[in-house]
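Hi P.,

Sorry for the delay on this. The queue was packed all week, but I finally got your sequence through. Input first:
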Amino acid sequence: MTAILVAAGAFLMTLIGGYVAQRTGDRRHLVLGFAAGLMLGVVAFDLLPEAVRQAPEELHGVPQALLMFAAGFLAIHIVERAVAIHRGHEGEYAEHTHGHQHVHGHGHGRASGADSGAPGIGLTAALALVGHSVMDGFAIGAAFQAGTTVGTVVAIAVVAHDFADGFNTYTITRLYGNDRRRALTLLAADALAPVTGAAITLLFTIPERLLGLYLGFFAGFLLYLATSDILPEAHSPHPSRTTLLCTLVGVAFMWLVIGFAG
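Then the structure:
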């Protein structure tokens, strides 16, 4: 039941992220930098050590939990590259179509196809974020099965990360030409998703070894999000020392939390 209450916190943080997306200020990069630090801290100081403790068996000289860590990192990388390639082809098609229309004197659209020409891409990306949020809730439930300490630190990292999820769900839906109502509907779905994922884990208990393998996989998944999505997004508009400092504070905060919880 604790996992459900924590997932409710993720629900609220997702909504807050969506609200901030509608009222974008100049401090978002600091929040994202801090969130990336939290995620890095939870991977290095808690998820990986716990995963190795619960799944210490080795395969060709490497703990299986660490193999799953690499698999989690590569899995999300492959998925994101596949989506990026798809978007690239969509962009080529849109450019070709726009050029064709221009030749015939009908090119009255916007210069960029990203913000008006492909609402389906925005919906697909937003639904992928919703699916990812279900896994966030599942991660919270699975972590609490591993122990209160693990559950607490994973919950902090996931709840902080869900701010970015809510922000991105609303932003990307609107970016590709969907109306505000549809963006808010997807934001609501994204907010409910962690609660759904956490509720699923109440239905069964995950065996310890499988839990260790899952925690390793999720650690790779989380590290990829922090280093390849959140940090570049935090530094792109403001490559400042302040953003870097927020990341360092996030890592140090998780170190303190895990130290006190242990």
